[in-house]
Amino acid sequence: MNVVRTMWCVVLLLSVITTSCHSQTQKETSIMEKKNKIYSNTDSSKVVLDDKEWKEILTPEQYFVARQKGTERPYTSKYEDFKGIGTYYCAACGNALFRSNAKFDSGCGWPSFFEPITKGSLIYQPDHTHGMERTEVLCGRCKAHLGHVFDDGPKPTGLRYCMNGVVLDFKEEETKQ
User: Are 41 and 171 in contact (CB under 8 A)?
Assistant: First the structure.
């Protein structure tokens, strides 16, 4: 009797897990479909969405950084020590931001770059929060908060774009053969 009961419990548990996983997969697919409506590496039109729409598209951590001007913890970004060759994009909208040849190790704990891909790919605004005088960097297409820029970077620009990796996507450069 105990064996039968145990088997039914296992079957029931597997059924619940399968249903939950299927539901989660459907939810992720739904989010990706919504994300695909605005996410583009080629469309330069401005993106304006309300908070509800952003919450549906972004992960909670991305939403916190991109829309609430949060900061990810230092040394936690998958791009901090990343050496791939390609282009970094805004994770919220797909706007091209930086090329990998502009990335450098600043030791600050966040991915750092010395120049954007184009002047229009970023927006700058004064940031006086936390008792500091900084320059905030926003995506030029969707105005997602990306990080800050400082004037202590390497040549040729002397700038250090200190970015939150959670709001970056990376696409590897296709190798020519």
Answer: yes
CATH of domain 51-172: 2.170.150.20
Question: Is there a catalytic annotation at residue 93?
Answer: no
Q: Which helix (H) or strand (E) holds 126?
A: strand 122-127
**Residues 152-162: tens digit of each pLDDT:** 999 999 999 99
What is residue 74's three-state secondary structure? coil
Listed range (25-29, 55-59, 127-131, 162-166) with the worst mean pLDDT? 25-29
3-class DSSP assignment, residue 58: coil
pLDDT at 177: 58
Identify any residues that bridge with 89 across adjacent strands, giving them in sequence order.
96, 169
Whole-number pLDDT of residue 37: 84
Whole-angstrom Cα distance, residue 30 to residue 10? 30
If DSSP codes are grouped into helix, strand and coil, which group holds residue 103?
A: strand
- Check 90, 93, 142, 162 and give the catalytic one: 162
The per-residue pLDDT for 174 is: 82
